[in-house]
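sry for the spam today, last one i promise. struct tokens for design, 633 residues
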């Protein structure tokens, strides 16, 4: 059963909160002693099937417009001005245009009937969608839906973009290195080598380094070795084992995986994992960074690079989902978030914009707290959530995309702002949002029967309340109050479309869950999050290839093989490779059968000692002369 709610205008006040006073049964019929019954509003249409009289139809359509209709001139046909142009018109011109737009909306108010699943309600003589647009950005004049209702495709923004990859690829390796190009790899190599030196220096100053420490065997890495490291990490997502050292098991049994040890030694893998770095610690100036920027400083270059590459290499289709994702992190972390309906429950939250059909990650933003310095309290779309949505959609304006969001993001003011920028939006809605009419906000579950629909429109924004097992509210910019009947259930069309298009982010997470690169435990949160981003980039590469003959698992195995082939690195040999890390070591034994070591004269105190600096290749006392010498030089 479909009904309408006729609502008053909302110009900025928030929806009033519900009080605890006992409810009174609404009187749906006008009082007989009311001197002007036509000016009294009914919450919903009467349940009576009696045909409406012509006077009742005229009264319902012209309610609240008596004064404006008296001032209109007959015989003058006003042309509706486009929405964005009206925003910058003078008040007098805008008022005239608004009257002409409102006059176009007069239609017969008969209630629409639910249609079958495969049928589409007919709409003879549709109303122009442009005429339904408001003249004031945040003045919502809620009213009944006009009948016959406008077809959704007539109100929807035209989609003017060819979706898919912007560059064609033939092999998985080509799609992957288009994202992880040589520029970003050289940056990671440079920062990793710098951090390895800083780590060794810190350990020396703290006295935690020893002759057998793994850092003493460090030598600078390069791009080829880093690609090999990435390939090993990706292979760990395909071959699942519970402990890291089990991948280097070369024993002659069923648990052996000898391929890992042929590509890189276990000690070298440990060293690269410990020294992997993306931003120089010395460049972190807290005075120049906001609090959220300081929290993400370690991983910021990777986030910026991937956001740029993801958006450059792919053009989104019309339906786009905006939702949050969660990377599990059980340790203490200031930016940790708790989302009970996610698989990870607690961890690092990201707001993501994904294509609904494929799950392609087009842009994301890591939550590290909100920067409130740029917010304006008097602007309804300058809040934290609307500002986040507009940042994620930057660059997609006026292309006709439809943004599917849940009730955490949706609001009437944001829907109108998106419509102005050339988007459509739809999704669930919290009825306590600003500008939601109080008649809908006050409706409870007991006020409706199962399958009943209530709703109203402001011209470009529609709100629909549907009673299923619970009360569900939807907001849309083009669906109106159309409904379909599937079996014994009557559903609004916006609910069916929402179920089809909202799962873009969840579809991405489901595909990544099969190859858990970030499953390995880490003591450093941004390194685990980096593996999550690496995993997402592989999925995007798979979508970029756009080859239906490749299965996801087959694509990953081919990519790993291509990386090993294209970036074959020689096995590291600590005896022949000179190290650049200043660390103490001991000379080798003079005779294997004896404990005497080679001794040389210290460059500082001239004593004969058996310790030396591996980088300087000079003998020096570890505890008395090592630090003064390196401080002076």
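last one done:
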């Amino acid at each position: 059963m479909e009904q309408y709610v006729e609502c008053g205008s909302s110009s900025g006040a928030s929806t009033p909160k519900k009080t605890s006073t006992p409810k009174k049964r609404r009187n749906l019929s006008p009082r007989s002693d009311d001197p002007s019954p036509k000016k009294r509003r009914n919450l919903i249409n009467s349940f009576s099937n009696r045909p409406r009289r012509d006077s009742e139809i005229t009264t319902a359509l012209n309610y609240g417009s008596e004064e404006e209709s008296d001032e209109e001139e007959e015989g003058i046909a006003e042309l509706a001005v486009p929405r964005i142009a009206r925003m910058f018109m003078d008040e007098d011109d805008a008022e005239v245009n608004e009257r002409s737009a409102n006059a176009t909306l007069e239609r017969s108010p008969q209630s629409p009937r639910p249609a079958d699943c495969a049928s589409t309600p007919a709409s003879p003589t549709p109303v122009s969608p442009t005429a339904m647009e408001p003249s004031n950005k945040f003045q919502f004049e809620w009213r009944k839906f006009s009948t016959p209702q406008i077809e959704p495709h007539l109100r929807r923004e035209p989609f003017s973009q060819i979706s898919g990859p912007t560059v064609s690829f033939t092999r998985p390796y080509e799609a992957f290195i288009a994202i992880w190009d040589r520029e970003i790899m050289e940056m990671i190599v440079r920062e990793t080598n710098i951090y390895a030196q800083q780590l060794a220096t810190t350990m020396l100053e703290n006295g935690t380094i020893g002759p057998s420490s793994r850092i003493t065997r460090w030598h600078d890495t390069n791009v080829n070795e880093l690609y090999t490291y990435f390939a090993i990490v990706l292979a760990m997502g395909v071959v699942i084992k519970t402990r890291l050292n089990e991948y280097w098991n070369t024993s002659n049994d069923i648990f052996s995986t000898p391929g890992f040890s042929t590509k890189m030694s276990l000690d070298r893998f440990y060293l690269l994992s410990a020294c992997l770095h993306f931003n120089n610690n010395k460049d972190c100036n807290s005075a120049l960074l906001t609090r959220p920027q300081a929290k993400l400083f370690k991983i910021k270059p990777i986030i910026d690079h991937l956001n740029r590459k993801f958006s450059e290499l792919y053009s989104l289709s019309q339906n786009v989902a905006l939702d949050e994702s969660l990377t599990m992190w059980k340790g203490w972390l200031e930016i940790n978030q708790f989302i009970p309906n996610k698989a990870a429950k607690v961890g690092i939250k990201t707001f993501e914009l994904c294509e609904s059909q494929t799950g392609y990650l087009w842009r994301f933003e890591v939550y590290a707290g909100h920067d409130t310095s740029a917010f304006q309290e008097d602007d309804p779309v300058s809040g934290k959530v609307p500002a986040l949505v507009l940042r994620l959609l930057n660059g997609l304006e006026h292309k006709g995309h439809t943004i599917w969001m849940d009730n955490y993001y949706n609001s009437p003011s944001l829907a109108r702002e998106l419509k102005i920028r050339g988007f459509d939006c739809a999704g669930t809605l919290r009825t306590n949002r600003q500008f939601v009419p109080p008649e809908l906000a006050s409706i409870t579950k007991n006020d409706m029967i199962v399958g009943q629909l209530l709703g109203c429109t402001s011209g470009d924004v529609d709100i629909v309340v549907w009673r299923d097992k619970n009360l569900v509210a939807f907001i849309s910019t083009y669906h109106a109050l159309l409904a379909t009947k599937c079996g014994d259930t009557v559903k609004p069309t916006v609910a069916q479309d929402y179920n089809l298009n909202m799962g873009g982010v969840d579809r991405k997470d489901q595909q990544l869950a099969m190859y858990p690169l970030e499953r390995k435990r880490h003591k450093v949160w941004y390194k685990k999050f980096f593996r999550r981003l690496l995993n997402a980039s592989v999925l995007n590469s798979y979508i970029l290839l756009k080859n239906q003959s490749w299965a996801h698992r087959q694509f990953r195995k081919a990519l790993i093989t291509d990386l090993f082939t294209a970036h074959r690195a020689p096995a590291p040999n600590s005896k022949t490779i000179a190290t650049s890390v200043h660390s103490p070591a001991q000379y080798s034994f003079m005779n294997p059968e004896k404990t005497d070591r080679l001794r040389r004269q210290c460059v500082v105190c001239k004593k004969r000692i058996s310790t030396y600096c591996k980088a300087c290749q000079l003998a020096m006392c570890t505890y008395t002369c090592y630090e003064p010498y390196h401080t002076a030089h």
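Residues 80 and 131 are 6 Å apart (CA to CA). ok im logging off now
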